[in-house]
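Intended use. Records such as the Putative exopolyphosphatase entry shown here are meant for training and evaluating sequence-to-structure methods. They are not intended to support clinical decisions.
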Amino acid sequence: MRIAVLDVGSQAVNLVVGRSGSGPDAKTVHSWKLRTRVATCIAPDGTIDTDGRARVAAAVAEASKYARQAGVEEIFAFGTAAIRDCANRDRVLDQIESESGIRLGVLSGVEEAELTFLAARSWLGPKAGRMLLLDIGGGTLEVASGKAQLPESALSLPLGAGRMTREFLLDGDPPSSAAVRRLRRHVRDQIREVIVPGDWPEPRTVVAASRTFYQLARLTGAAPMRHGARQSRHVQRKPLRKWIERLSRLPSAERQRLPGVSPHRAHQILAGAIIAYELLTAFGESSARICPWGLREGILLRRLTDESWSAGGASWWPAPWSARCLTPA
């Protein structure tokens, strides 16, 4: 059986297709991505504008066509913080459903943390021991801790790199030093409210998921992904401090020329660096290992290993071409 995870985020629509009955490293058999940059279409009142809604709806429709071609029988479709938290969410979901036939579900931030933790655990295996997961998304920051497949503790904070850029760093390119100071103070205060030394058990392995962390790891000396996904890569706290100072002086056009920084994330890499630095500092960690698996792989793994599983606010959507839909009652 082939199932798919369809992830509608702040930067792109991603589709991952998996097959049941295969080993941990062979579950993903197809992947597809279409960049939308819907985060740039969020208005000051928190709504996604007409252009953003059209981009996302068209991308989801394209993803459904790709899924059909890949032989998908079931789709798990959801929107992350950019969709979940927008002020006109119902209108966005209605337009997507009208144009694609798929009604997106939504996952809570804590559910995202739990499922990303599962993906990282599956990637690293039991040798990782007690694990601390850090994940910087576009809209939210997730943290989870535990020593089993699923975490014992998980939290989500509205400290995503895209959100912080929109709220603090749009007074210039590069932003003013005052704006950067305000952001650093805000992130530090928010993190220290929930991360208190001694409240979180000391981990054997600190792992970081998300493209933001991977790009920060490249800035701090990690090898590019073309050298192999299994190569150990780390984002280093000490160099991050110097990179924050450098990034704060560079316009987006120059940031995207730096190692590993993609053009569509260049505008928010400074906010990502600040969040990562303050997070590692709060936990007293000098580095975090990069995990190439994240939320989509976590959902896929959970579904493939537990057919009865479903997550809170999200739904499994039998595709129109599902074998079950073609079978007479």
